[in-house]
Amino acid sequence: MLLTIVVFIIMLAVLVVAHEFGHFFTAKKFGMYVEEFAVGFPPRVFSWIRKGTRISINAIPLGGYVKIPGENGEEDLTEEEKSVISQEQLFSRKSAWKRIVVLCAGVGMNIMVGWLLLVPVFMHGINPEVVVISVSKNSPAFNSGIEIGDVIKGFSTVETFVQTMRDSAGKETNITIEHNGVVKTISTIPRTNPPAGEGALGVALSESGVPAFSFFDALQQSALFAIKIFSAIFVLLFKLLGALFGFIPGDLLQSLTGPVGVFQATAQASAMGWVHIFYLAAMISLNLAAVNIFPFPALDGGRVLMVIIEKIKRSPVSSKAQSITNTVGFLLLICLLLFISVRDVIRIW
After folding, report:
1. Distance CA 181, CA 252 (A)
2. Are residues 100 and 22 in the same domain?
3. Which secondary-structure segment (H or E) carries 79?
């Protein structure tokens, strides 16, 4: 447990610092005044000032932020800030493209970190596995207790497993799965005439695993893989939004996990070795990148959208409108995070 806690905190801290450093570095390069660079959310544990910027370490290690005056407009600036900061140093006074670069820099850093973490993974390699990515309701898999994320043991390709289930249709069949780090055998009967698109067992599967590459091949292959994963997650977010409003069928919330689920995954990865820890950290970093660039209030993508709206309407979005939008967005994200965390706890229990 102690090792898991240490690995979890270090992994989260590295990803948060990398993300916020992207904002910090580009803001400084463009001559913006950076008031604070914070790791974690308040209350503040300790801080120090370096080159005019307060570096803060906060108590809640589930994120971080870089405070750049003028980011939410100039109406909210305090008198002290107005007296200390020149107009040219305000975020709001910089050109649109510079503001967009600063807002996107954190996402870029997370993509780069995800790529770099994948390089040693691709050099070492991971044994191939068949992983469950969705389960149809009232299917043999659903009734047998198979869940998203379960690993089908004894098969290295989806094709061989699917063919085995077809050959076993109508017969009682034992399947060995790894569920939350625990290996168990379940009994099920694959269907002879399944509904269209569901298959004999009623699961959608994906192949997991990485062959070993040389260093230069690993650089290229891991970069392509990182872009592929980032793009897939970004598209999935739009599908999730569509599912929430009923435009897309299915319960995509099942595929989401929160800090509790990530902590559990960290425990499993720690037990399996450094390769799996690096792989997990890379996946989390790419997830953070895709989520943050999503055009939703309070996220980096939402702030980019505000800059684009400003350019379209040829006038700044008011500080009040930005504040209300970001607050509502933040509260919705917190509610979603709490819902997912409670569900993760119930599932683990």
Report:
1. 23
2. yes
3. helix 79-84
Residues 256-292 have pLDDT tens digits of 666 666 666 676 666 667 888 898 899 899 999 999 9
In a shared domain, residues 193 and 296: no
- Going from the C-alpha of 197 to that of each of 112, 169, 194, the distances in angstroms are 37, 16, 8
Instruction: Return the SS3 of 129.
Output: strand
Task: Give the domain-ending residue among 185, 210, 235.
Answer: 210
Instruction: Clarify whether residues 150 and 178 are in a common domain.
Output: yes
In a domain, residue 336? The reply is yes
Residues β-bridged to residue 210? 126
Tell me the one-letter amino acid at 26: T
Query: Does residue 68 form part of some domain?
Result: no
Phi, psi (degrees; rounded to nearest 5) at 287 = -65, -45
Distance CA 211, CA 218 (A): 10
Instruction: Give Rg (Cα) of the chain.
Output: 23
Inform me whether the pLDDT recorded for 327 exceeds 90: no
* pLDDT, position 219: 95
Query: E-strand spans in the chain?
Result: 36-50, 53-67, 126-135, 151-152, 173-179, 182-188, 203-210
Domain housing 183: 126-210
Question: What DSSP character marks residue 157?
Answer: S
| Range with lowest mean pLDDT among 122-126, 133-137, 165-169 | 133-137
- Contact in structure between 96 and 310 (CB atoms under 8 Å): yes
| CA gap 108, 229 in Å, rounded | 14
Kindly report the length of the chain: 349
Task: Report how many domains make up the chain.
Answer: 2
